[in-house]
Write a structure and sequence with these properties.
Length: about 325
């Protein structure tokens, strides 16, 4: 492995973490629309995600484009295997995006319908992204060309479905914590109670998935067997997830939300640390796609790194500006 290959493994991981943290709270807010009691709560939910959701999607586009340019065999393997899941997840994101825009000027009845559609789209895409991750962790059937040779039904296995539910719980908790922190009065109180309830499922599922991964998929413990000190990373992750509930219970909204940010980063960091240097485990270990055997040429990696280092500060700067400009509280009287 070269330094450039290793750099790109972690750089793409950074984009995935960025998308999950930023888009995670607006996807979670969309899900909260499914439990809203009236139009005022739905309008407040819409106001909370309105200024941010479209900019947050840039991180997903960036991660996908970089994967295509830097590790093309991995991109090909994932889309040959998960094209149905990805298309359905994309459909969910499209439905959510369209629903948010139509909800802005809808009648009270229309607002309810569009926000329910936005919530269902968020649930669908979040769940399916988790199913994809679960399948990548357990390993997928690839041929010598790196093409998926299984069936779509095989992807709906218990472990992958469990990771999908974990992703739903994580994102729903993240969105509720954001509203508990940024909301006021009854809105914040309800979001805090919702976050506490879903957080319990989040913590339990995170622990179960980690244990299942270690027990049933030995290839995922390779790095930990080589360096036992690495077991502290998943333990730290569970500790941070536990802290979320403690902070939320004591109504420390900012601390709970930023603990959720750290928990997502730690959970995805644990995932990356577990896989490295593997990108897509194959059921036949000889066909596994790694950083070493699936990267573009050295010149391509270098050129993409230069382009990314120029563009990334712009994306980060714009994101910071938007969050500062719309950093106020959310109330039931707030508008988009």
């Amino acid at each position: 492995m070269t330094a450039l290959q290793i750099t790109w493994f972690w750089l793409i991981g950074f984009f995935v973490i960025g998308y999950t943290v930023l888009a995670g709270f607006d996807l979670g807010l969309s899900m909260l629309a499914l439990t809203a009691r009236d139009g005022r709560e739905r309008k407040a939910t819409l106001a909370g995600l309105g200024p941010f959701w479209d900019g947050n999607e840039v991180w997903l586009i960036g991660a996908g484009a970089l994967l295509f340019a830097v590790f093309p065999p991995v991109y090909a393997a994932l889309f040959s295997g998960f094209y149905v899941l990805f298309m359905l997840a994309l459909l969910g994101l499209i439905v959510r995006a369209v629903s948010i825009e139509f909800a802005r000027t809808a009648s009270p009845a229309g607002l309810t319908a569009w926000m329910v559609m936005a919530g269902l789209g968020a649930v669908l895409s979040t769940f399916l992204f988790g199913v994809v991750v679960g399948n990548v962790l357990r390993g997928i059937p690839l041929d010598a060309r790196g093409v998926f040779i299984g069936t779509q039904w095989e992807l709906l296995n218990p472990f992958a479905l469990l990771v999908g539910v974990l992703n739903l719980a994580m994102i729903a908790t993240h969105g509720a914590l954001y509203l508990a922190w940024k909301g006021e009065g009854r809105l914040a109180a309800k979001a805090r109670a919702t976050a506490q309830g879903v957080w319990s499922l989040y913590l339990a599922l995170a622990a179960v998935v980690m244990v299942m991964a270690a027990v049933f998929y030995p290839h995922l413990t390779r790095n930990y067997r080589m360096a036992p000190a690495l077991w502290l990373v998943p333990l730290f992750t569970l500790g941070v997830i536990f802290a979320i509930g403690a902070f939320n219970l004591h109504r420390r909204g900012a601390a709970a939300f930023f603990s959720s940010v750290l928990a997502i980063a730690a959970l995805l960091g644990t995932l990356a640390l577990t896989l490295f240097p593997t990108l897509v485990p194959a059921l036949n270990p000889a066909l596994t796609l790694t950083v070493r055997n699936s990267s573009s040429s050295h010149l391509s990696l270098l050129a993409m790194l230069i382009i990314t280092l120029i563009g990334m500060p712009i994306v980060i700067g714009y994101t910071a500006w938007v969050y500062r400009a719309f950093g106020g509280k959310i109330s039931e009287e707030s508008g988009y």
